[in-house]
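Quick one, T. Sequence first:
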Amino acid sequence: MKKQLLIVVFIAVLAMAFSQSAIGAERLIFGGGPAGGVFQVFANAVQVFDPIKASTTYKIQAQSSAGDVENIRKTESGKVHMAVAYSGSVWNARNGKLKNDANKYENVMAVAWLYGAPAQLVVRKDSGIKSVKDLAGKKVGVGTAGSGAFANCELFFTHMGVWDKIERNAVGYDDAANYFGNNQLDAFWLFVGYPSGAVMMAAQTNDIALINLDADAEAGGFYKAYPYFSKVTIPANTYKGVDQDTPSFEDSAIWVANAKVSADMVYDILSKMFSDEGLAHLAQQKKTFAGMKVSTGPNGIVTPFHPGAEKFWKEKGVLK
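Structure tokens:
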């Protein structure tokens, strides 16, 4: 009888320990982006990675969002604990330079570089549109309001003098591709790693072309005004029917975290995702992440690192 009682007590203690472990795991919300966007793919990929799922100290929950700017604001407030954003937007936010927003978002700290996000402007091959300035009077998909795509489209198109001359449609990438395929849009803008599924979708139903945005940016003095953008080339045959290189410009998509998130947790999550297994997992989710390496972790970041990330990158010898 005593032996049976001891067994029952032992099982109860074990059950209580496991229960407390589950209850004690801190939930970390990871802000992604709109459906069809790379931001959301990354957030989902972190959430489902087995070593992350196995943690008893934290549980990551991917959450969709409008994208870049919304993620910055929610990370600052603590509504999300981690997120994806653009390096330039984080810099603007930290320095009180977001459009119509002088607040300084100093709780948003860098964790890692993810990929270069090039601007892409899709038109029909027979449209006659050769430059951003040719969009005047046209119907253009400009990205979801609150997203980095929208913010950078407004920035660039305003600089080029066409923002107020187009019929703007604030829709996500997949919707834009559908509207474009149904002739409801003359063009649509993306700010995302290539190849984009939305552009591939558009190329299945139309003969498409990509606009040389680097030529417009160079001629318009865009790089001098916004030096955190850099030149990039989208290779020929990335998309069906686009058989020549397309010069453009890009910002860097980066992983950020709220300053109050435990440094130990940030360090642990980074260690898992930047292991050989973690990097292989990310590359399997989307080719965009194939360029991620330990050596590129601090790239493209012009704002302070989270203490957990700073410790990790210094230990790896890629940050001084």
